[in-house]
């Protein structure tokens, strides 16, 4: 496992800033220790520095993965956030969208969220800002991008898309081979 280059660190932090804003520092400097990001085969892992010290005693060829996979870099150099990062990002999310129970299954099948399925939305959501999608019982369901701002959501018709689907917890079943 190697450190991320400056360019890749910048791309990763820009993607995380879409969802959690300035709370990236809280993701790295946690009360239970310091965490860091490491890369192996274009995948980015979130790992405690204590565990990383133990891993450095092993040969690199023997390590398949370490920590939690946050996502991967595409061939074009963009970063794709995986659903495995959801539980780490959820406490720091700035824009949150809650779905009605009737719309949860549609979102989990990979569909966008319409106004009819919108339960609530955070007050400060801007258009095209990264959003975390929750059920009405505050269970994180996935990632999305706000298609409308909070103010616009109040005035659109029920079939208008208010959140573009990015990733959901249904991927654990649909794409379990690719998530490592």
UniProtKB/TrEMBL annotation:
Q: What is its main location?
A: nucleus
What are the record keywords, sorted? Answer: Nucleus, Ribosome biogenesis, RNA-binding
UniProt cross-references to InterPro entries, sorted A to Z:
NIP7_N (IPR040598), Nip7_N_euk (IPR055359), PUA (IPR002478), PUA-like_sf (IPR015947), PUA_sf (IPR036974), Ribosomal_synth_fac_NIP7 (IPR016686), UPF0113_PUA (IPR005155)
Biological processes, Gene Ontology terms:
ribosome assembly
Output the Gene Ontology cellular-component terms: nucleolus
The molecular function terms in GO held by this entry are: RNA binding
> What are the subcellular locations of this protein?
Nucleus, Nucleolus
Q: Which residues form the PUA domain?
A: 95-170
Family from the record: Belongs to the NIP7 family.
Q: What does this protein do?
A: Required for proper 34S pre-rRNA processing and 60S ribosome subunit assembly.
**Quaternary structure (record):** Interacts with pre-ribosome complex.
The protein's name in its UniProt record: 60S ribosome subunit biogenesis protein NIP7 homolog
Q: Which organism is it from?
A: Dendroctonus ponderosae
């Amino acid at each position: 496992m190697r450190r991320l280059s400056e360019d890749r660190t910048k791309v990763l932090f820009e993607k995380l800033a879409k969802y959690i804003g300035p709370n990236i520092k809280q993701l790295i400097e946690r009360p239970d220790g310091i965490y860091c990001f490491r890369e192996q085969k274009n995948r980015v892992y979130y790992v405690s520095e204590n565990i990383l010290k133990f891993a450095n005693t092993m040969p690199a060829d023997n390590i398949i993965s370490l920590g939690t996979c946050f996502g991967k870099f595409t061939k074009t150099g963009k970063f794709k956030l995986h659903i495995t990062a959801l539980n780490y990002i959820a406490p720091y999310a700035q824009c949150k969208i809650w779905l009605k129970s009737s719309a949860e299954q549609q979102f989990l099948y990979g569909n966008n969220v319409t106004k009819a399925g919108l339960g609530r939305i955070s007050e400060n959501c801007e258009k095209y800002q990264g959003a975390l999608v929750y059920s009405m019982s505050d269970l994180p369901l996935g990632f999305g991008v706000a298609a409308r701002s909070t103010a616009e959501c109040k005035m659109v018709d029920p079939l208008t898309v208010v959140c573009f689907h990015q990733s959901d917890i249904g991927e654990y079943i649909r794409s379990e081979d690719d998530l490592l």
